[in-house]
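Hi there. Long-time user, first ticket. I'm pasting a complex I've been working with (about 847 residues overall). I'd like to know whether the download I got is complete or cut off, because the file seemed smaller than I expected. Thanks.
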Amino acid sequence: MLEIQDLSAWYGRAQILNGVSMRVGQNEVVALMGRNGAGKSTTMKSVMGLLRQTGGAVRYDGRDILGRASHAICRQGLGYVPEDRRIFGELTVEENLEVGRRPPRPDAPEWGLDHLYALFPNLRERRRNLGKQLSGGEQQMLTIARTLMGNPRLILLDEPSEGIAPVIVEQMARVIAELKREGLSVLISEQNLHFARLVSDRTYIIEKGQIRFEGRFDDLDANPDISRTYLAV
Amino acid sequence: MGFYFAQLLTGLANASSLFLIASGLSIIFGVTRIVNFAHGSFYMLGAYLAYTLVTLWSGSVLGFWGGVVLAALVVGLIGLVVELTILRRIYHAPELFQLVATFGVVLIVQDAALAIWGAEDLLGPRAPGLDRAVRILGEPIPEYDLALIAIGPAVLAGIWLLFHKTRWGVLVRAATQDREMVGALGINQAWLFSAAFVLGSALAGLGGALQIPREAVSLQMDLSIIGEAFVVVVIGGMGSVSGAFVAAVLISVLNSFAILIFPQISIVLPFIVMAIVLIFRPYGILGKPGSEAGAPEAPEAPLTLMSPKAMMVMCAGLMALALSPLFTAEFTSVLLVDVMVATLFAVSLHFMMGIGGMVSFGHAAYFGVGAYAAALAVKFLGFGMLPAMAFGPLCAALAALFFGWFSVRLSGVYLAMLTLAAAQILWGVTFQWQDFTGGDDGILGVWPPGWASSDRVYFYIAFVLCVGGIWVMRRIAYSPFGYVLRGVRDSQTRAEAIGVDTRFHQWMGFVIAGAFAGLAGVVFAFSKGSVFPDSLGIALSIDGLIMVLLGGIHALAGPILGASAFVLIEDWVTRLDYWRFIFGTIILVVVLVAPDGIAGGIQRLWRIIKRGAA
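Hi, the file is complete. Here it is re-exported in full:
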């Protein structure tokens, strides 16, 4: 469904990605793991058209999307949840969701407000509050709900478990399972091996802008060196 | 009592027109992050168009209001054309390029209006049905003023509903906070920007159109309103429409009472209010932190030392310049002095912006203080030329010490606006203080003494001072102080974290830039033999920005190329009819073809040629 081939990306003269290749299949949850600065977020931003200096190829449903404007990429059915959440703080929760709203697509599940409020009950209570008044966990819920309002087929989740309370992390895991049940494909970036194992089918490990491992978690367990080298803190 | 109430109503009526213009400016800045100098031109076009339409349909109530609304809509359309043809291509260029581009539009619109409507002021018809005065508490109040007082809040309410009750408005508010994220959620920003630009321009046009029963339509309307409109936007908080309303009321009402006590104050009052507000609320009354940031900047490339080849070219250029009086006409020497003065001025502005990371919209203030200090020292203290030449930059440095202390407490567009305020205050004082500064008549008879009076000798004095000044600034840029300043520019928090007193360094950078601008002013004063308030004016500040940006802000050679090109083009173009139109077009072409300036353009051209040769 999503195919990344030999993707490179630069910030100014600094090369951040150096030939990343990976794929996400239909209704699959894939974890992209690596330390801070390994290139996880850069990979996601490149796919989403948020970086200008990129090379290689990104195909979505067989169509080339690298270099296209980010709104056009979103309209193909790709949803993006940024790691720093990027809530519109001066807008209410409901207005935040309104910004994300897009017409339904025949090939993807449709998320109305009611459906989302069922998934994130806190947001219903706080729907008249401003984005900046929410707690970190609530903001994380809101940013996912906002992206789901666009009825995506594939969702890029950048570090969903970062910086939130353990009880919310559990809720997040349930949400990701729900997304998979609804038929979505998910690419999440993650530092936490435990969380990644809990929610995803396969994993890629990235380090210094290159993929160092790909496979199932069983394969990863069989090679403890790999997780020690690329993930241990 | 009645008199004061009438005064209050006049203030509120003025507030309404000011609010219309400022709200449009604020919306445009909030969404597109463009500091739109052409906003005053849209206001002026609104007035001219309304004049034509209302005169055409004269007499009827419908004709008047229909003409006003249609004029606003046409201005919105003109805004759309400007956005589509010019601004859309440069949203990713450095923000100052956008500013210069909009100034190019200002020049073009000025000459277009001159060609269509002529140079004479036009007196518009009064509004039918609202052409009398009513007595309130015994004082006559124009009915039209009352209508304006109602229109301001009505428009505010309309904008509020639009922004809070429609999907489009929600998107605009979201884009004001985080444009990129709005794009990643599937919204086509280009379309959103165009719509915001059309709305903003139409509001400016409406503001202008509603002025026609109150004041004559003239070609000076654009730049006379733009300073005040900026001030209102800044006081209210960039991007905040309600803030613009509060600020417009604050300024206009204060002004209507302040002129009772001190009539001359109205020129500088808005700027004084702005300076006070910004010291206590650095983001304006209703502004949010972060609202000061303009377009996202590309990371700065490090400055490199000049290659030996470039050094040789530079030395050859200097040699040619030094020898030029020997084989050119006196007239050329005079022009070359202008070029050198402009270059020193541009380099000092570049020092502040490119090295110090502080954008100044009022750098002419220090140029003018230098020039006036020298001229006043000659006139009142009987200084000779050389002591006066030392005294001028010293005074400019002191002025920069004073205003810089306030300015470095702010950042981004707010800092730029405070520098503009400082310049306007100095200009206002100079303009009004007839006894001391000569006011509009300036100070005459500031000539070099006999030994230096020939154009050739003065050329060499200017050569030594300007080239020397540029050399010193270059040395400072590469000194440890210069490194720290650039570090602060690139990341204030990181510089602070390693123990740099960032404000102090910026403050000193501000003072150095001011002192050298003052030196340029001194050389200028003695070359012309006179000084006028123009040398502190907005126009000169903008000229400086154009020079720096034409040259390219990321290269040290940029301001040199930019200033030379500017003076030579200006010298040639101003002899033609409709030179503003031509000059504006040249600016736009440079901005669209070489968004990295002449220096960047030459570098790119050179790479292409090299690749072709290889």
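A couple of notes from our side: The domain at 29-50+69-230 of chain A is CATH 3.40.50.300 (Rossmann fold). Chain A has one domain: 29-50+69-230.
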